[in-house]
Amino acid sequence: MVMELPDLSEIKRRRIALGLKQMELAKMAGVSQSLIAKIETGTTDPSYSNVVKIFRALERKPSRVILARDVMNRRVIKAHPGDSLDSVAKKMKKYNISQMPVEEKGRIIGSITETGISDLINNKGANKVKKMKVREALEEPLPSTSETAPLNIISSMLKNAPAVMIMDKGKIKGIVTKADLLKII
Question: Binning pLDDT at 50, 70 and 90, where does residue 184 land?
């Protein structure tokens, strides 16, 4: 009986989604790690029997729930109440981000977003906004959750906010944006 197999490019995508290293998948499938690597890079045309072994191994492995820590960006660029909106806008451009948590004395007190700054420019003019301080444009704090929050929770939170802060005992551990969700594809 011939089994219809998915495209070989699925191997890497499924392996990563399951949180497996190439060596772990190789052991589960009874093939070499180098074969897995060559298949994933497209540098070999594997035998049908080896491909069947690999896909069967991938099906046996229970799906691992993807958590916030798997997709979060650990480098969080923060603003402070006394920063000028001009300097914040420059940071946003430099780091290609569209929102920043605002921190004061080690606590998150709000956020500043590209959308919020754009709205101010439309209402007050660019020259006036450049001179404004973050405290004058402070928005609500970004929602937060823990590193162990499942991806479906993060995804739901991102429907109503531009980003989600990942916290542990009051300390920032990371940030997740809609763009970070693309890491799992």
Answer: confident
Residue 131 falls inside a structural domain: yes
Here the CATH number for the domain that contains residue 120 is 3.10.580.10
The residues, any chain, with a CB within 8 Å of residue 25's CB and separated by 6 or more, are 11, 15, 36, 54, 57, 58
> Within a domain: residue 3?
no
Torsion over CA: 42, 48, 52, 54 (sign): negative
pLDDT of residue 64: 66
Higher pLDDT, 81 or 150: 81
Range of the domain at 174: 68-184
Side chain identity, residue 122: N
